[in-house]
Fold each of these.
Amino acid sequence: MSAGSRSAPNDFSVSEPVPFIDLVQQYQHIATDVQESVQRVFTDQAFVLGEEVSEFECEVAEYCDSRAAIGVASGTDALILSLMALEIGPGDEVITSPFTFFATASSIARVGAKPVFVDIDPASFNLDCGQVEAAITERTRAIMPVHLFGQCAEMEPLWRIAVRERLAIVEDACQAIGAEYHGRRAGVLGTVGCFSFFPTKNLGGAGDGGLITTDDAELATRLRRLRVHGDAGGYRHLEVGYNSRLDALQAAVLRVKLRHLDSWSDARQENARRYGELFRHYQLLDTIELPAVLADRRHVYNQYSVRVRGGKRDAVLKHLRDHQIGAAIYYPIPLHQQECFADLGYRTGDLPQSEAAAREVLALPIFPELQAYQQELVVRGIAESLGRLSRGASIQPKFEFPDQQRAA
């Protein structure tokens, strides 16, 4: 038993909802600062771009060690605008992962290019770099690795391929702000890095928002132009761009949250470590495979996704939901099996690791404010669903539970 825990009676039973994510707790800790920042924007009545956005861009650039940062309206727009700035379009191909959020591939299709899917590494869920070279054709223009769930893809082999084949690298870092690869942060590991500030991200706003990082000054200038309809100033449009500007209100909220990001990431890492202890304590590692943290990485756990082996994932999920324990599946259908990409010609079985992951992954609560006893409720729920622990069984809890939740 861990320090501070105590033994439980043999009729130990706890029943309490555990949310998948709780943004209310996070807001309560920073509410005053957020409200002051938002009020500043209303006082100035400067809602689109302006100083608030410029300051946020500078702060994120410094955080990521990037020379430039360009705020846009969403993570999806960050991907689309990056491809536009790189002049990728009809007839071009972009290599990416099929096991990711839909926007990764849809951004490629949206600019008229063709997504080419390469299977994933089963340990990290990220692009299997060993399969990328075989997917390159004369039409390939870029590689779009996804730093899935908060852990960076294996970038060094991709750098070598990109240099040799003269390809751009567009980092989909929408789940990975603060993640590191060999001491370098996500966002500076490719030609451009793309981030999302959707509210449930590690750095989440009060709505949609996104950002692009790059060390290429010319590319940064073009991206700033493209986000405002290709306007170079004075209503002089050098190209047809897009309307995708980060709102000042979002920037104000995100500037407050950015100051807390590393401490929140540390809390997520501690929660991940605690899950490892709990799954060992309840002897579930024969069925539950924990997320792998690869060498020289800083994993920031946007999601904590385990594998449930033996075809039992859906039954585990149902049991957790029946007992009001938060869990989710990211992602149930790989992109190469999505109906809208049927014309690409992929068939079931073509990308077996992605298909296996879609059948087995289960994301558990990992938000920074999650308490140890709540994590134990999650793991006990999984143990119950697998028939390892009946309700009210005498297995001693590993962590201390609040007194008021013990059965009389």
Note: Confidence is low (pLDDT under 50) at residues 1-12, 404-408.
Amino acid sequence: MTVQELKADFQTAYGKAAEAIYFSPGRVNLIGEHTDYNGGFVFPCALSFGTYLLLAHNDDKVMRFKSLNQPEIVTLELSQLTTPLSNSWVNYPLGCIAQFVKRGVKIDKGFDILIWGNVPNGAGLSSSAALEVVTAYAFNDQLGTNYDRTELAKIGQLSEHEFALVNCGIMDQFASAQGKKDHAIFLNCDTLQFELVPIKLNGIKVVISNTHSPHKLDSGAYNQRVAECKLAVEQINKVRPIKYLAELTEDEFKTIEHAITDPVAHKRARHVVGEVQRTTDAVKALKSGDIAAFGKLMNASHVSLRDDYEVTGPQLDAMAEEAWKIDGVIGSRMTGGGFGGCTVSLVKNEAIDTFIQQVGSNYEARTGIKPDFYIAEIGDGARRVE
């Protein structure tokens, strides 16, 4: 959908012109999964597709929300901006607006808001983070609060915690806010220090494969993994004080892993410690031009997510396994929270057509589901369009 079409839709919905248009991207994580809420490293990049937000002031002192993916307009009084709604998509933008109010920002004017996104829902490419960050960016601009992009990412994360009730890490919102074209973000999720690393993939593309087995982070499995990691930290603390699993090197983990008496928590911890090391090694490999090493680490990441973290499931495993069979695939792994969603693969240009045809048909034969494939373009973070 074009910006002109979105403006026309805003005019139809509200009977007036939009005053400003904002955009924030989805993301794909190249490596470093389920490390973000464990204080570790991640390596995501922003994508070229994402979520648009159009708005205009109103004199009615209400906040009106409409999504082109939803039939109704939700209207709230300005006194209702800090109260979550029951089972509504509006909680994602509302949770962000609530953070401004909680910071003491006075909102005394109403807004009419229209939202449209082209991040596939349930694909694990962070449609929710794109919606949160575009809202935070828009209101930061409209209210003149001058928060930096890192603060806007935190606002999005708090919205997810308090209004969507998912105990997510900061990665998705951070990538959506801080993304840069043709770069990935090497982010320390504990300190929020980050480095923009150029993605130089000569003759290779990033291909995202959508299993169409939608993941649902709020199904409880995600929060359960967070709790299992917390238990591992508590048990390790009996022999060594740590705040996060990611503080441990693999060698240090081997010397104290006996302290984790819960077998499930032990497996979760082993994944996190190994994944942090893989992510660091992968970024070094990329910087030195060793794409083959990067690909092997991607494959190892998927195996760990399958066996130790148990967040892949039959569809994601089928997609990765079929990708590994293709000559010209450098590496392939699940990306995002898991339990469905997408894989991310590095594929040589000359193998892309074969990849899409063979992986697509083999995956469909194994699962009965027709997949979709996107050749990823790495784009910029949140911005005002006009």
Note: Residues 19 and 76 are 20 Å apart (CA to CA).
Amino acid sequence: MNNCIVLDGRKVAEESNSKLSAQASNLTNKYGRKPCLAAILVGDDPASATYIAMKEKACKSVGLETKTIIMNKDSTTEVVLELISALNEDENVDGILLQHPVPKGIDEIVCFNNISLNKDVDGVTTLGYGNMAMGLDSFGSCTPFGIMRLLESYQIDCSGKLALVVGRSQILGKPMSAMLLNKNATTITAHSKTENLPSLLKQADIVIAAVGKPKFIKCTGLKKGSILIDAGYHPIEKCGDVDMNGIEDIVSAYTPVPGGVGPMTINTLIYNTIKSMEKTFNV
């Protein structure tokens, strides 16, 4: 398919970062401080540390301040909650990020839900998800919201389309389905117990692969002319959730891996943090 479009998340994120940098500069000049993201890293997981470093670098590149708090892997839920409470009260902090996953001894959902709704820039609280699903004001989870912003930047209209989300995680699959539904897509959420997945893939106009398994979906099983968003990334295999061999002959548009969804996730975290500061000062 000669007119297949590569949905370049890296390019869109760079263009957005340029605008966000100007917004951050204006806020800093007007209110005497930079928009600030506080990141909590519990434990010594190398991948999590890498993700935090990437987010720090991206935030600083557009003029945000970052505060990274590294906690011992033996920290209790109560100790993490105390830190979250302090950050909730800190008037100079606009967003709070608790890096996922946390060590097994910590109740992640309880910690997420203690983040102030006004500072939930990663879109992980239950109430934030509920507000988003109901079309109320909230910060959308960064990966699905980043995907929606990427689709919008390429003027892809979801209305009336059959959208299939393969995956049902709390911070990707479920909010992704709700966001698509809010844009008038007819949405199906598939998962590990879905029996007729090949049939659904052949029918879907838009496929969001978010199952977390390398090359789980064969692109040859997709509907001709459909749109593919691969939200997976597996550093060992260096691939996403979709086997991309021959992809350009099948779909009308797709996200590359890497360079598609990933850059939009980090960009959206920055976007939400700046929005949080703007809300604080009623900008």
Note: The chain has nine helices and eleven strands.
Amino acid sequence: MDKDLKITYRQKNSSVCPVCSFEFHREDMLSGGGRLIAGKLSDELRRNYDVSKKYGRIYPLAYVVSVCPSCYYSAYPKDFDSILPGEIEKLRELTAARKSAVKKFFGMIDFNGDRELRIGAASYLLAVDCYSYRNKKVAPTFKIALSSLRAAWLFGDLAADDPSSSYKKISEFFYKKAFQTYVKVLDIMQTGGEPVDAVGNMGPDTDKNWGYEGILYLTAVLTVKIGSKEQDPRKRMENFAKCKRYLSRLFGAGKTSKTRPSDLLDKTRDLYDKINAMIEEWNQETGSLKEG
């Protein structure tokens, strides 16, 4: 391939897997050159990118997670080496399970090869699993929430390309996982159960760190997306009452700031109105349930 058309490069210095000692060269994206054409921001704070005539469609999220091509140990780069002996032992024991999970959904995948959408989606599936065994110092709950949401996005992209596949169901599974974990994240941020400074970029995408306000907003978005499917109507109403409290924190005085930009406030207001409309509709249907 013409070097001018490359979108990635291999790091000169090799990485060594702390679980199995396999040596590999991490693939990273090149910047600039019109590779990424930023499009609209979705309601889930995902940045959409227009297809480049020169480079084609690019998925920046596919290159974020470091994955050992040998044992499939996965983590964000800052956490890849900061792993405790007990964690190494556990992750080593589960190597076959990780490989089996990836094979089940994707068949044979070569993490030594160039990243593409399938490998990117697999990397987040593996990250969700691996962070389940990491210590609190690396803020694993935050990383699981973020990885689950990104997995939902990328599996959704795969489903759009192949509607007959099982990718849509997998995307829905990870959306549910993201919803459950983001609720836990808010509790952790209140109690200090995990160090926030270990999170780094809270995302949810790579182009902007939306911080605590982004987490509040995303939890509300996921409550609407997933919580509205709750079969128990009273539980569903409880979810939405909690969701409105999240959004109320975002409203504050209604003024924009560095952490509360106008586009986030606009999205918050729209979501708040949508929730009120849904609650009113449910109240009319049941005739007896009242907002908690």
Note: The chain has a mean pLDDT of 89.
